[in-house]
Amino acid sequence: MNYYILTFDRKIGSSYKEFHDDFVDHPQFNRWFHYIKSSYIIGTTLAAGEITDHFLKVAERYNLPKIHFVVRVNLSYRGGWLTEDAWNWFGSNSKS
Q1: What order of strands is seen across the sheet that includes strand 29-33?
Q2: pTM of the model
Q3: Annotated domain spans of the chain
Q4: Which CATH architecture has domain 2-93?
Q5: pLDDT for 74-84, tens place per residue?
């Protein structure tokens, strides 16, 4: 399994709850992380292009901006300022 970060533009004033529920429901998203509003870290066997295709379909369904970026990441190399729960997620998932 590989991890990717997806970062995207948000439409001010729009609700993202339905988008979120639909987006993370992909059957091949084995794990995901969404502690930052405009980003997801996704653990999957999909390729970056397949994540892009899924994002575009779901964003279009909810009339949201399609501007986004997907890149593969190594969870072992990390830094930042997050909650303890977030750091625990990284700790347990960087071992897989």
Answers
A1: 29-33, 39-44, 2-8, 68-73
A2: 0.92
A3: 2-93
A4: 2-Layer Sandwich (3.30)
A5: 998 899 999 99
